[in-house]
Design goal:
With about 325 residues, this protein is an alpha/beta fold. The protein has two domains: about 200 residues, Rossmann fold; about 80 residues, UDP-galactose 4-epimerase, domain 1 (Alpha-Beta Complex), CATH 3.90.25. Helices cover about 40% and strands about 15% of the residues. It is built from eleven helices and twelve strands. The strands form three sheets. It has a seven-stranded parallel beta sheet, sandwiched between helices. Strands 7-9-11 form a three-stranded mixed beta sheet. Strands 8-12 form a two-stranded parallel sheet. Strand 1, helix 1 and strand 2 form a beta-alpha-beta unit. Helix 2 runs parallel beside helix 4, helix 4 packs parallel to helix 5 and helix 6 runs parallel beside helix 8. The longest helix is centred in the N-terminal third of the chain and has 20 residues. The chain is globular, with a radius of gyration of 19 Å. The protein binds nicotinamide-adenine-dinucleotide. Nicotinamide-adenine-dinucleotide binds next to helix 1, strand 2, helix 4, strand 5 and strand 7.
């Protein structure tokens, strides 16, 4: 299969490319990425000499670039996005441009060349949960941050192109990913790198907000399954079956460093902070046989040791981290 991956220099996209090239000898991948603050070509160093891999630095909003690449591929996996909620609160315009306009440009080209399209989205499009309940494919959209609203708009465009133009597309909505190569301003890498540097972990509010965590390899395996065996026109929710309060994630990381509660500090809560996300992933489980393989405690330990042994990688990125951030997305 000849794949066009967008945003392949970011956290999830680079893990996807590395994993898919190691699993599928007959796949070729072209990675289109503009290299924002979050994009890092070094993530793909292991495949840079692989004839099956090509990197193109370019913008998904550039119709000429997208058109030229679309003529030569069988399928698109669309990861590219502005992805950090805190940045979307500070400056929403970049989110509308990349996430909405960029998706529309890709969709137009996919329709023109009749290319299979898989769109990567987030559980945040569904809004926030109280103490009970889960998000599923039937949950109405209710985005509450500029980031979530831009992703919801992109999802609606994908659905509209399926309905209007018969585009062969699927969507997946996933919870919080963790693993290697995550930009060090999201919760887990920020916490780990802060502790290595002898700094405290900033935790929003009282740390009561709940997120579901899924290992990035589990997410990417689910994406590959949807791409190859998912039903056209369908949405699939992907989750890790690991609901945790942010304070519990911070504590687990402190424990791995033999530190206690003195190593985190509560900071003013994020504006409009969603209380809880949780995913019912029974549809992908039943239809495609996917289930998250990673246990969170073991996956977190591996992730912490990855950051410990890749200090050069994250040190170079520290200058790009925005101030006062505590969480992923
Ligand atoms: N990280 C999570 O926990 C999570 C959870 C659910 C869904 N998602 C979604 O998964 C996708 C990937 O997330 P991530 O965490 O890897 O994000 P990331 O911020 O680490 O990477 C995004 C990548 O997209 C690239 N990009 C941004 N704008 C672009 C443009 N105009 N043209 C080309 N490339 C561009 C960036 O350079 C970067 O390499 C996003 O669509 C995000 O909404 C992420």
């Amino acid at each position: 299969m000849r794949l066009l991956v967008t945003g392949g220099c970011g956290f999830i996209g680079s893990n996807f490319i590395l994993r898919m090239l190691s699993l599928h000898d007959d796949w070729t991948i072209v990675n289109l990425d503009i290299l924002t603050y979050a994009g890092n070509e070094e993530n793909l160093a292991a495949v840079s000499g692989d004839p099956r891999y090509t990197f193109i630095r370019g913008d998904i909003c550039d119709a000429a670039v997208v058109d030229a690449l679309m003529t030569d591929c069988d399928a698109v996996v669309h990861f590219a996005a502005e992805s950090h909620v805190d940045r979307s609160i500070l400056a929403p315009a970049a989110f509308v441009r990349a996430n909405v306009l960029g998706t529309q440009v890709l969709l137009d080209a996919a329709v023109r060349y009749n290319v299979r399209f898989h769109h990567i989205s987030t559980d945040e499009v569904f809004g926030a949960l109280g103490k009970e309940g889960t998000f599923s494919e039937q949950t109405p959209y209710a985005p509450r941050s500029p980031y979530a609203a831009s992703k919801a708009a992109a999802d609606h465009l994908v659905r509209a192109y399926i309905h209007t133009y018969g585009l062969k597309a699927t969507i997946s909505n996933c919870s919080n990913n963790y693993g290697p190569y995550q930009f060090p301003e999201k919760l887990i890498p920020l916490a780990v790198t802060n502790l290595i540097d002898g700094k405290k972990i900033p935790v929003y509010g009282k740390g009561e907000n709940i997120r579901d965590w899924v290992h990035v390899d589990d997410h990417n395996d689910a994406v590959a399954l949807v791409l190859t065996r998912g039903r056209i026109g369908e949405t699939y929710c992907i989750g890790g079956d690991t609901e945790l309060r942010n304070i519990d994630v911070a504590r687990a990381i402190c424990t791995a460093f033999d530190k206690g509660d003195e190593s985190f500090t509560f900071v003013t809560d994020r504006k409009g902070h969603d209380f809880r996300y949780a995913i019912d992933f029974s549809k992908i489980q039943k239809e495609l046989g996917w289930t998250p393989a990673h246990d969170f405690a073991a996956g977190l330990a591996e992730t912490i040791s990855w950051y410990r042994s890749h200090e050069k990688w994250w040190r170079k990125l520290q200058g790009r981290v925005i101030a006062d951030v505590t969480e992923k997305e």
